[in-house]
Amino acid sequence: MDSVRMDKFLWAARFFKTRALAAGACELGRVESNGLRAKAARDVKVGDMLRVKTEAGEFLVEVLMVSEVRGPAAAAQRLYRETEESRELRLKLAAEHKEMLRIGVVTEGKPNKRDRAERSKLRGKIHRF
Q1: Which residues of the chain does CATH 3.10.290.10 include?
Q2: Average pLDDT, stretch 106-122?
Q3: Which region among 5-14, 101-110, 112-121 has the lowest average model confidence (pLDDT)?
Q4: Contacts of 57 (CB under 8 A, 6+ apart)
Q5: Tens digit of pLDDT for each residue in 9-21?
Q6: Are 76 and 15 in contact, with CB atoms under 8 Å apart?
């Protein structure tokens, strides 16, 4: 197998939980192949450079192998190699997010009753649209 569809590769490499989510990311322009926007049906070949934006961060990866089959996470990680710059940037952003959670700037999860009350107090004081 020389090439595989983009959405199948992203699903097999475990960037997305379903092929539908992978195809949706391609439609929204969150996937680039060799610097060009990638559609879901675009072929992925060994040696391609992919930029994938997910909720976990932005990945810049080189394709090492292609597969149409989704296997265990360890097997999925052998399909690609993430660049060092990409890994460092993702770790830095994760540390910043963790620090913001710690100091209370960002809350994790759904807002509670108190948070909603504070937001509704602010709603009229900022801009009205």
Answers
A1: 1-82
A2: 79
A3: 101-110
A4: 89, 90, 93, 94
A5: 999 999 999 999 9
A6: no
